[in-house]
Amino acid sequence: MRKTLDPQREHWDIVYKSKPDYFGETPSEFARRALSFFKGKGAKKIIELGCGEGRDTIMFLKESFEVVAFDYSPVAIAHLTQKAKSNQLSESLTAMIHDARDGLPLTDECVDGIFSHMFFTMQLTEKELDFIFQECLRVMKAGGYNIYSVRNIHDPHYGKGIHRGEDMWESPQKFVVHFFSLEKVKRLARGYEICHISEFDDPSPTYIKKLYEVILRKPEKKKE
Predict the structure, then answer these.
(1) CATH superfamily of 6-148+181-194
(2) Which residues contact 15 (CB under 8 A, 6 or more apart)?
């Protein structure tokens, strides 16, 4: 299973090369909500998993957050790095080409929060997802929040295309998507406190994606 993402990595590189700013230049509405939440909790340093070309990353940087941004696409990271430089935001950004299945190359409890928009909906097995969620738990400070979105089983594309295992299907555009049930969201919250789960619509040019918005909290350490 370690090689399953390799074709997807190549596919994303091709997409980003052929159409820069594939997802647009403005931040996602989901990221705007996460920004407001993180500000309200006093977060200063966050991780973004699956940052892509950085439409959300740049927003966080402009709002004075320190961001550690991960993506396995070299093209995406190159585009993000250039955008940060053009906006004079490079000092607050650490951008890495990295596969999260290899763990997060950070020390324990070093960030205030973690953000990802549809990263976990990549072609990742539940076992791999569980490992990544536990890595997120490790690198977050106690009381930190993991805010993420995933496409769910109410999505119009669920069950359509080429079945790639578990709840994953490949679209005609060759993107493999992992769709989440509410039960899966809860299973992957092992070790966290579940603060919030809700469904929301994410419009695209041709159809409306159905997503879960999830907020998980790392419990405070118990006093001895």
Answers:
(1) Vaccinia Virus protein VP39 (3.40.50.150)
(2) 22
CA angle 79, 77, 67 (to 5 degrees): 105
Q: Which helix (H) or strand (E) segment is 82 a member of?
A: helix 74-86
Tokens of 68: 């550690």
Look up residue 90 and give its DSSP letter.
Answer: G
CA 39 to chain centre: 19
pLDDT tens for 183-201 read 999 999 999 999 999 999 9
Domain ranges, ordered by start, for the chain:
6-148+181-194
**pLDDT tens-place string over residues 63-108:** 999 999 999 999 999 999 999 999 999 999 999 999 999 999 999 9
Q: pTM, whole model, 2 decimals?
A: 0.92
Question: Residue 50 and residue 71: Cα distance in Å, rounded?
Answer: 5
